[in-house]
Design a protein that fits this description.
This protein has helices spanning 5-24, 52-65, 85-97, 101-110, 114-123, 130-137, 146-163, 173-182, 189-193, 212-216, 223-239, 241-247, 252-258, 264-277, 290-304, 322-335, 388-399, and strands at 72-74, 80-82, 308-312, 315-318, 341-347, 353-359, 376-380, 383-384, 400-403, 411-414, 418-426, 429-437. By secondary structure, it is of the alpha+beta class.
């Protein structure tokens, strides 16, 4: 049988290429380079006159709340309460007038008057709709005035801690009934347009917060901005681990880089963030031991984001890592053995014929790939498989490109990313596995 060792060597080169490129990079970003109106920092340059009566009452509330001598607490909804009669009277006036979240967003984004923007950020936490408050919280990193940001952060964290973990089952029967009454009928166009496919369940989380603007703070040069971004992310991820799962992975290289910052506060906050996502049984390192801190961060990142990741029955990611390198080494060793497989053909019990390459042996190190012993590989990326030679041709077609920029004949170069869809027959069942190399 034809040896597949050359093919395995090609795959090894491809898999190692992204890791080598990453190591050569001078600057590591947060992984979110696309900027929008929420990114640090906006340039508000318009006249956006707010409602006079409402902002007069809010200005009174904020003036009293910002006094260092003020006696403050937070209610069960995470909203700041000041023990002051004048403040309470102003709050009653605000509630009588009502707050429009859309108007506050306009003030935050466009108003060139810094004081009026600061009032809008203070007012955000008094919106009655909790989701509106979370939307306005995501505007904080884009505010250009540091003082306004720094006064908003503690109020935002208090609100996050009080609300972000709430579930449908935490609501009263009346509240649950009201939510169900407002929902479109399951299966209707309105429901499908909103992504609603079922009735709410007891453990459904009610709210979310957009963390990308806070991650983009890590791209700035100012140490305090970086530390504040890390602090907010850590506090949020402590309450909602799933938010870390959905947003943090692209930023891990940047956060690991910040572990080596010259600024002690940045190092502390970066390590605290890794502690927030680490396995609870993992022993936290001595902050003074740089090697232990780095190892802890790597382990925490891999625990939450395994580099060899099966994200569904038919999809697997192979990401740059020592684990992927070990997998490639094991593949090279296995593919050089004639006992691995052979050309085969057959038919299902219903008479459907198939032809391909039968996998006779699956080494333990390669079991993670999900191709079982006895499976017959029939196609790779749509190309029919008959033998070892066709496997190599199919994979090289996807993993290599002919570059004719330097000469007419062209030079074969590996792609930095690739996708393989392997179709195989297992008994009477046709299956497929997709592998994405990044």
């Amino acid at each position: 049988m034809m040896s597949l060792a050359p093919l395995a060597a090609s795959l090894a080169f491809l898999c190692l290429a992204p890791l080598a490129a990453q190591q050569q990079e001078q600057k590591v970003s947060s992984g979110y380079p696309d900027k929008d109106i929420l990114s640090p920092f906006r340039n508000p340059d318009e006249i956006a006159a707010p409602p006079d009566a409402l902002f007069a009452a809010l200005r009174t509330m904020r003036r009293i709340a910002d006094d260092p001598a003020a006696v403050r607490t937070f209610d069960r909804d995470g909203r700041e309460i000041i023990d002051d009669e004048t403040w309470r009277a102003a709050r009653s006036e605000v509630e009588r007038i009502g707050i429009d979240a859309g108007m506050l967003a306009v003030q935050m984004r466009t108003n060139r008057n810094a004081d009026e923007r600061a009032i809008a950020f203070y007012a955000a936490f008094w919106c009655s709709n909790i989701d509106y408050v979370f939307n306005l919280i995501s505007h904080i990193p884009g505010e250009p005035l540091r003082q306004t940001r720094e006064r908003a952060y503690p109020r935002a964290i208090a609100f996050v801690q009080a609300n972000i973990g709430r579930k449908f089952g935490d609501l009263s029967e009346d509240q649950q009934r009201a939510i169900r009454a407002e929902m479109p009928q399951i299966g209707s166009p309105a429901a499908m347009s909103r992504g609603i496919t079922r009735e709410p369940r007891e453990d459904d989380l009610l709210h979310s917060v957009h963390l990308v603007p806070f991650l983009q703070l890590l791209d700035l040069d100012d140490a305090l901005d970086q530390a504040q971004g890390l602090w907010f992310l850590k506090e949020t991820c402590l309450v909602r681990r799933d938010l870390a799962l959905s947003t943090l992975e692209p930023a891990l290289p940047r956060i690991r880089q910040l572990l080596r910052s010259k600024d002690a506060k940045i190092r502390h906050e970066a390590l605290s963030l890794f502690c927030a996502i680490a396995d609870k049984n993992e022993t936290q390192p001595d902050p003074a031991d740089a090697a232990a801190v780095e190892a802890f961060a790597i382990a925490a990142g891999k625990a939450m984001f395994p580099p060899l990741r099966r994200t569904s029955d038919g999809l697997m990611w192979l990401l740059p890592s020592d684990e992927r390198n070990a997998l490639v080494d094991a593949a090279i060793a296995a593919l050089g053995k004639e006992s691995l497989g052979r050309p085969d053909r057959g038919e299902t019990s219903s008479g459907v014929p198939f032809r391909g390459f039968r996998v006779d042996t699956v080494p333990a190190e390669l079991a993670v790939l999900g191709i079982p012993q006895g499976a017959v590989i029939t196609a790779i990326n749509g190309m029919p498989i008959h033998d070892a030679k066709s496997i190599r041709a199919a994979i090289e077609e996807q993993f290599w490109v002919l570059d004719r920029s330097e000469n007419k004949e062209g030079v074969k170069k590996p792609k930095t990313a690739a996708t393989l869809v392997v179709e195989f027959q297992q008994g009477d069942t046709a299956k497929a596995m997709e592998y994405r190399v990044r």
